[in-house]
Amino acid sequence: MIKKILIANRGEIACRVIKTAKKMGIATVAVYSDADRDALHVKMADEAIHIGPPPANQSYIVIDKIMEAIRASGADAVHPGYGFLSERAEFAEALEKAGVAFIGPPPKAIEAMGDKITSKKLAAEAGVSTVPGYMGLIADGDEAVKISGEIGYPVMIKASAGGGGKGMRIAWNEGEVREGFQSSKNEAANSFGDDRIFIEKFVTQPRHIEIQVLADAHGNAIYLGERECSIQRRNQKVIEEAPSPFLDEATRKAMGEQAVALAKAVGYTSAGTVEFIVDGERNFYFLEMNTRLQVEHPVTELVTGVDLVEQMIRVAAGEKLSLAQSDVKLTGWAMESRLYAEDPYRNFLPSIGRLTRYRPPQEGRSDDGTIVRNDTGVFEGGEISMFYDPMIAKLCTWAPDRITAVEAMGEALDRFEVEGIGHNLPFLSAVMRHERFRSGNITTAFIAEEYPDGFAGVTLPAAELEELVALAAALTHVSEARATRISGAMDNHRRVIDAAWTILDGREEYPVAVTAKGEGAYLVAPREADGGNALSREIAVRLNGWTPGDRLVEAEIDGTVRAVKVDQTLKGFRLRRGGGDLSLACLTPRQAEAFRLMPEKVAADTSKMLLCPMPGLVVSIAVEEGQTVEAGQTLATVEAMKMENVLKAERKGVVKAIVAKPGDSLAVDEMIMEFE
User: Fold this and answer.
1) Which residues have a catalytic role annotated?
2) Using 50, 70 and 90 to split pLDDT, how confident is the model at 602?
3) Which pTM does this prediction carry?
4) How far apart are CA 142 and CA 149, in angstroms?
């Protein structure tokens, strides 16, 4: 058996591998860049070795530096995780020559399947259904336009060595092909050191469904069901589940058998994933094979009970698979939500900074049988760097059926506390509540179709809004009672029993009366007042031990437990639940009268400025001072977290001044240029 594993990766996947290695009694070695000196994977490993500066192309994807770390540590095996060197055949070859086990497939399989162009040709030869496209190398934008016209729009432009949504664009016309081709090449070169591009037909109304395969070096290969990965943004998966709500058993079997046949055809060993596009008639087409562990592997583990990392290690050690196809059973339903450092209110642009608060929900099996699992590589007080992928954690839930797993995920998200950076928790919560998602009627266009103007938060149903108004009133009652005791204004033995408050949601008023009904229990009732919105009913609230300063309350509201994030503000509380985000002012009736006379603050006019939407590096400026630009014209390109973001003009105008230049590192809302 393997004795010491070096993990040639970082973040949550490095932590994930370390957990299984420790369970198996195998020593672990972490590698880290300057930016990751205090990272969680470094703290978890038995030893750690520094490998260079923050940029991945100067540290994590430099083969010589990883090989040097292997020699220094004496590791006899390497797990590459995903991304970085995981699908680089030359890395696997270097390990082979050094006599170090690669916990992954053989170099020839990586070369055959890791290259999307070659893999499609081999898949077609093996009888696997493939998407129409051009598999040759494409020299420039002109050739890309010609090929796209022959295939027929829309087309998908992809990096041959790509993955994780990097180097991928959908183009609906010639202009988008030219722009997307160059951006894809740039991203591919920066992320993978390989700028080769290919083009294929983009299947409309598609579902992204993938098959997990597992093979050993003794000719055994099986598939472990499928994962539905259709909830995507910018071709990057956001929510995954297993099994798919769309497949029937016959289609699952056919896809699984094709995936296994392809794995055997290329002499594949270890864990791998064969990705398919499935149309509305359950016709499926091969996309690519990922010759590594997938980000979303936990949902397969939850429904099969198989530790994929352990299986990879055992296969690399020369063992036979302990499972036959007949042993694979799919039990229950699992969901995975990818928590990203991306601000959904700013078109999901990357966010960096310090995690001032990071409190995941409790992991494990609950009394109702549901399971919560959180794979992460961060900790409270740690930093999210601009140099790497913006993933913070992968939150997973399991339940006996899909809708229960969805509801368990919604509750777990409500209990997940993250502060200090922009993040997509509100959006994930909103998807869990979305009726189309809950029905399982999803495609890869779900986000674009359901949020065409971006995400602006969730408008809570009236009944839930009233519950939060009642909760705010109860929280205010507790805070005020505590303040009077602290100030000495009231005798310590006296208690505030009844109070009248006006809860303001923006300019909407809710006059309420609060009556204490025992320890932590309150009855919030509508109060007669001039104007305002009366609650439709009396609402019973029990705070279950909440004290001022607590950031999460698990309150019983009319007998149902609700987890709500709480932030105390100058005038009241900010309450967040289910994607809803309410800032409620809690005033006395007299204060409410005065508030009505206050003028509304007018936001500053930034309509004549192009502001940097995220912390990033200015790659290029596409216009000059004095130039007239048209709506939709490219103005600048900013790179952040390995992704290029093209900034375009919203309307026609004249460039008055350009204050940033290529190479500048900008903060959020820092000015790039100004218009007349």
Assistant:
1) 288
2) confident
3) 0.83
4) 11
